[in-house]
Write a structure and sequence with these properties.
The chain is mostly helical. Helix content is 78%, strand content 0%. Helix 1 runs parallel beside helix 3. The longest helix has 20 residues. It is elongated. 15% of the residues are buried.
Length: 103
């Protein structure tokens, strides 16, 4: 039963992940994480009509977590500081590192 559910929803969940992140490899990882989370909580999903919405909720949360983790820590630290308080060399270094992590 579980294998049938996964086959039914895999393409839709992968498509959602891919449209969210724009990277095939990352979308595959997020899709795999989504199904792993679903399998862990499969017993909690009693009503078959809710499975689709349950998948999309897990997927949305996984994509949100991905972007939250992807935000560079250095950039968040830089945003909290006042512009004048940072050494210009350090400022350039932090900015460059932050931009490299975005790619």
């Amino acid at each position: 039963m579980l294998e049938k559910i996964i086959r039914k929803y895999y393409n839709a969940i992968f498509g959602y992940c891919y449209r969210s992140v724009g990277n095939r490899s990352t979308a595959e990882d997020l899709c795999q994480d989504t199904f792993a989370s679903f399998i862990e909580r499969y017993a909690d999903c009693r009503n078959a009509g809710k499975i689709k919405y349950y998948f999309y909720t897990i997927t949305r949360n996984k994509c949100t977590d991905y972007f939250r983790k992807k935000t560079p820590v250095l950039w968040r630290k830089f945003q909290r500081k006042k512009r004048g308080s940072m050494n210009p060399v350090r400022h350039c270094c932090c900015l460059r590192q932050s931009l490299e992590r975005i790619d």
